[in-house]
Amino acid sequence: MHITDHINKAAGKTLFSIEILPPLKGKGIESVFNGIDPLMEFKPAFIDVTYHREEFIIRKQADGSEEKVSTKKRPGTVAICAAIMNKYKVDTVPHLICGGFNKEETENALIDLNFLGIDNVLVLRGDNVKHEKMFVPDKNGNKNALELLEQIQNLNSGKYLDDEINEATASNFCCGVAGYPEKHYEALSLDADMAFLKRKVNAGANFIVTQMFFDNTKYFNFVKRCSEEGINIPIFPGIKPLTNRKQLVGLSNIFNIEMPQDLTKAVNTAKDEDVKQIGLDWCVQQCKELKNGGVPVLHFYTMGLSEATKYIAQKVF
Ligand code: FAD
């Protein structure tokens, strides 16, 4: 079922959903299920599974020389989606990125999803690989989320890359895109970022999932701004509870977001053993306010840890 159908069916009630990561290579599917099982009582409307492109690592050879090798540390996004749908009968949203794919490979990945009955995707550009300063698309790959979205919309109209494929079966993907209440780090201004978001919406995006934020004002301002720009598709707030002191700086640096002064002060003046509870209480308040504000979904970035999400969901739903 399309994510937008879930939203329509909920008729204004705030839904619960989660994002999970594929486990590190070597771990079994049980580790995925162990992260989902404790959250099933809250009836997730859908489960997102992130995509992780290859990384380059230096490996020492027997003769002492070093070799740069490519490795995928968290493979399996599509298979995990299929396994979740099979086990829990819950819709999944695989993340699909431009980086590391040429258009042919993207088309084949979409065909796999279509055959598996997965008809939702989160359409993303992906970040640059560590040794590159900027995002570099694959030769013959999509350069940004807009181009990837256009490719999917073509497939939704039965248009494949090969012009000679006639009377092709059209796919039926419901497409989400990313939105940044505090601006994407590369965008010159919030206005410029908003203009690109608008282009993604005009190209057929069906819903927006936001980057995490710890200050609800940023989300509500973003939604207002979107509405002023004529963006009227559902905007799902991305929620991440802070669970340790290091995250105050870590999350802020990784995701280019600002931590509210009150939260920073509370964490910095607390004893180590109290920090987690401060983060959880903050998140519960955030979620209650967002729910009262009528958000369509509270979308939790579990990052493989279900305990904190469970605590918050118990207080909010
Ligand atoms: P885009 O929409 O392509 O935008 C990227 C930048 O380019 C922005 O600054 C934008 O303003 C600018 N821009 C857009 N279009 C144009 C244009 N036509 N010309 C010039 N500039 C343009 N990463 C992963 O690798 N795997 C994941 O699973 C994953 N999941 C995510 C989930 C969510 C909810 C979010 C918010 C992010 C996720 N990311 C993931 C990270 C994401 O890939 C990065 O933030 C990436 O840097 C940008 O992706 P995007 O889709 O927003 O890019």
Topology at a glance:
Layout: H1 3-10, E1 15-20, H2 30-36, E2 46-49, E3 55-60, E4 66-71, H3 77-88, E5 91-97, H4 103-116, E6 120-124, H5 145-156, E7 174-179, H6 190-202, E8 207-212, H7 216-228, E9 235-239, H8 247-255, H9 261-268, H10 272-292, E10 297-301, H11 306-316
Parallel strand pairs: 1-2, 1-10, 2-5, 5-6, 6-7, 7-8, 8-9, 9-10
Antiparallel strand pairs: 3-4
The structure holds flavin-adenine dinucleotide (FAD).
Flavin-adenine dinucleotide (FAD) binds near residues 97, 125 and 196.
Pattern of helices and strands: HEHEEEHEHEHEHEHEHHHEH
Radius of gyration: 20 Å
Query: Which segments are poorly predicted (pLDDT under 50) over 5 or more consecutive residues?
Result: none
> How many β-strand runs?
10
* Termini Cα gap: 23 Å
**Beta content:** 15-25%
Structural class: alpha/beta
CATH topology: TIM Barrel
Average pLDDT works out at 96
Number of helices: 11
CATH architecture: Alpha-Beta Barrel
Q: At the first level of CATH, what is the class?
A: Alpha Beta
Strand order of the largest sheet: 1-2-5-6-7-8-9-10
What is the approximate shape?
globular
Which small-molecule ligands are present, each listed once?
flavin-adenine dinucleotide
Verbal overview:
With 317 residues, the chain is of the alpha/beta class. The chain has one domain (3-316): TIM Barrel (Alpha-Beta Barrel). 40% of the residues lie in helices and 18% in strands. It has 11 helices and 10 strands. An 8-stranded parallel barrel has the order 1-2-5-6-7-8-9-10, surrounded by 6 helices. The protein has a two-stranded antiparallel ribbon with strand order 3-4. Residues 50-51, 53, 95, 97, 124-127, 144-146, 178, 184, 186-187, 192-193, 196, 209, 211, 238 line the site of flavin-adenine dinucleotide.
